[in-house]
Amino acid sequence: MKTLPVSTFSAPKGTYDLLPPDSAAFLAVREALAAPLRGAGYGYVETPGFEHVELFSRGVGESTDIVTKEMYTLTTKGGTRLALRPEGTASVLRAALQASLHRAGSLPVKLWYSGTYYRYERPQAGRYRHFSQIGAEAIGTEDPALDAELIILAADAYRSLGLTGVRLLLNSLGDRECRPAYRAALQEFLRGLDLDEDTRARIEINPLRVLDDKRESVRRQLAGAPAMSDHLCQACKEYHEQVRDLISGAGVAFTDDERLVRGLDYYTRTTFEFVHDGLGSQSAVGGGGRYDGLSEMLGGPALPSVGWAVGVDRTLLALRAEGVVQDLPSPTDVFAVPLGDEARRELFAMVTALRRAGVAADFAYGGRGVKSAMKSANRSGARYAVVAGDRDLAEGVVQVKDLGSGEQSPVPLTAVVDDLRRRLA
Ligand code: HAM
Q1: Is 314's C-beta closer than 6 angstroms to any atom of ligand 1?
Q2: Were 96 and a residue from 101, 157, 228, 296 both cysteine, which residue would form a disulfide, CB within 3.0 to 4.6 Å?
Q3: pLDDT per residue over 317-353, tens digit each?
């Protein structure tokens, strides 16, 4: 007999569904990454999943891969060109500017966010077309302590998850004072190399990105490239020194990486990336930096800012690569198994009362037999099953079974909620 497919549809290439039980690990990672931000004065911000295309082409950069190759764009029936957000910084800054948050209170405006982002990239392990980030942006203040704060918060978040293999790479890209001279020097050097047409075009548009080329043939030729650190102006040098001192002072180790330019055009001064060596080629678990000119690029006032985004999916992969076992709360503490109609009523009421008392409880729905209901109880991960039939109820009791030890004892129905709360405390 021909079997019918479960469904004609499957998720689009490069996307994934988050399903239990794995989704619990995902939520725990997201929570662990967000918790330090909440504890450092960052307020939650949520922006739309799509924005005007120009926000990203202007914000992220006309010449970046993200804008030229990876954006999902669409034209609405009204003729508006929109793009699914490929990243969060431009959207968050747009939202802050639109609401004049920078005028409403003291600076910096500190915001954190959590969401899914979309990039039409070639899917591979750790690289998806739909992925999840936790991000933080501190808008409107130029202060090395702010750059340091963000870096330390991310490092602490990774540590709180139990990750030990996350390395921090740090660089400064200079500012509008010193970057032009460096850019010119780099262009001159690059023009003398043996490079393909695309890369030669990149030299003219964004030569710093050539430093990021991963191909061995290019990397070899880049060995003698001029270094940004030799071209930093005094102000950028001092700024970077202070960032380095502050993060060292907090016990966060880092490696200076001259080649770290990042794939988005808005960065100035501090740039950083957190990498994990257990992830293969998609090793960046998070990254960010300062973007002092972005607000003006979007038509706003000068608002020097800094931020980062951490990939939730890759952080989860890093945990798996290190074999870290997450301490996940059980989804269910108590599972109720009623035998008969009266027990159904009583135990349903008990489950409701347990939930209202803060105990995670579930119920054997569907009026199945005791064997199948007990199987559900075991599968649920609950520590206790509460079983009751007519005879128990006639005696005013229910049976509380410890699903770990198998021990079972009668408990008065009127006392069972308190009894279970005590046992679970
Ligand atoms: P990004 O480096 O493009 O930066 O992305 C941040 C993190 O998101 C990466 O380190 C990686 O973990 C994750 N990620 C990026 N693309 C993918 C993908 N295709 N699949 C899975 N994970 C991915 C930004 O997005 C900037 N907005 C960060 C920032 C905030 N800079 C300043 N403020």
Answers
A1: yes
A2: 101
A3: 999 999 999 989 888 999 999 999 999 999 999 999 9
